[in-house]
Design brief:
19% of the residues are buried. By secondary structure, this protein is mainly α. The chain has helices at 3-23, 25-30, 38-60, 69-94, 102-129. The protein has one domain.
Length: 132
């Protein structure tokens, strides 16, 4: 997969979740069978703003090749945030929070983590073979 395709996919995912959490947090989170308090709405909007920040970063990198140093930092940040998000989501789902739709978020987290790892290791393999 090319860096531009990966960046656009992550831009769409981040922008979708970010806008939903920022603009319609109660309605969006209710699809997961979760009820937000006033504090929950506040933190959902803060998280939505952070996701929109990621969307801007991915969009900014859509025409940058993976060999560029900026991708390594972006992939590490993505891997870190998605892995922690997956652990939190699994823990909450296993304790009875939310409904089965919550597992789709875990699936997205895991797929993004795997793709980030793939591109991180692919980049290192290219560097060690001297093809970059």
């Amino acid at each position: 997969m090319k860096s531009s395709v990966f960046a656009v996919i992550l831009t769409i995912l981040s922008a979708f979740y970010g806008l939903c959490l920022l603009l319609i947090p109660v309605k969006f989170v209710s699809t997961y069978d979760v009820v937000l308090t006033a504090s929950g709405i506040y933190f959902a909007r803060v998280f939505g703003a952070a996701l929109l920040g990621f969307a801007i970063l991915f969009w900014s990198n859509k025409n940058v090749p993976f060999s560029d140093r900026s991708w390594q930092s972006l992939l590490f940040a993505t891997l870190f945030s998605q892995a922690i998000d997956a652990v939190i989501n699994v823990r909450e789902l296993m304790s009875g929070q939310g409904n089965s739709l919550g597992w789709t978020t875990v699936a997205v987290n895991v797929l993004v983590c795997l793709a980030s790892l793939y591109f991180l290791f692919q980049k290192k393999a290219v560097k060690t073979t001297g093809l970059a």
